[in-house]
Amino acid sequence: MNNLQVNSWVRSLTWAIFAAVLGLAVQVAQASTPPAACPAILNHSFDRLQDEKPQSLCQYAGKVVLVVNTASFCGFTGQYKGLEALNAKYKEQGLVVLGFPSNDFAQEKGSNKDIADFCESTFGVKFPMFTKTQVTGDGAAPLFKQLTAQTGQKPRWNFHKYLIGRDGKVIDQYSSMTGPDSKSLVAAIEKSLKTKP
């Protein structure tokens, strides 16, 4: 092997090593890059209603989130229809409605399967629903404790609503009397959807 061939071989080897090191550096950088920040208000997991598999609410980071405590046997149960319509209308723009069935007001006695079947067959609910959750008192889920602390208002009845912006900050809370088609709620949702995450 003459000097020219040796020099060519050394250059090739040097480039191969450089490319390998560079590739490794990129992989390390990607591995150490943290995932998109999850706001504290969404940093919780709940079991999905349909199959009781754990779901992280962090998957909704960057979206406008409407949290609602629900019940199957309440005078406001018909709001399921409006909540589903809201979710369907604004889903592509970044809204997600999250339903949390609760027996805190003694109007959700059934099993998680009963609730799932009722919501789907009666109101065609497709927005994310979670297993029965305590929303008031000392045993309330941490999410609802945070919502109560930030708004100064705990759920007083079924279908209480909390609106969370794309930045993870609570925008407002709405009583059960505020329906999903309420002008004030819809206006707040539309305004929130216009902001960038």
Topology (elements, then pairings):
Layout: H1 3-32, E1 45-47, E2 54-56, E3 64-70, H2 79-90, E4 95-101, H3 112-123, H4 142-151, E5 161-164, E6 170-174, H5 183-194
Parallel strand pairs: 3-4
Antiparallel strand pairs: 1-2, 3-5, 5-6
- Bin the strand percentage: 5-15%
Order of helices and strands: HEEEHEHHEEH
Quaternary state of the chains: single chain
How many independent structural domains? 2
Shape: globular
Any guess at the CATH architecture of the largest domain?
Answer: 3-Layer(aba) Sandwich
Question: Helix share of residues?
Answer: 25-40%
Described by strand count, sense and barrel closure, the largest sheet is: 4 strands, mixed
Mean pLDDT: 88
CATH level 4 superfamily of the largest domain: Glutaredoxin
Distance between the termini: 61 Å
Strand order of the largest sheet: 4-3-5-6
Short description:
It is built from five helices and six strands. By secondary structure, it is α+β, with helices and mostly antiparallel strands. Strand 3, helix 2 and strand 4 form a beta-alpha-beta unit.
Task: Characterise this structure.
- The structure is a single chain.
- The chain has five helices and six strands, in the order αβββαβααββα.
- Helices cover 39% and strands 15% of the residues.
- A hairpin with a 6-residue loop joins strand 1 (45-47) and strand 2 (54-56).
- The chain has helices at 3-32, 79-90, 112-123, 142-151, 183-194, and strands at residues 45-47, 54-56, 64-70, 95-101, 161-164, 170-174.
- It folds into two domains: 1-33; 40-194, 3-Layer(aba) Sandwich (Glutaredoxin), CATH 3.40.30.
- By secondary structure, the protein is an alpha+beta fold.
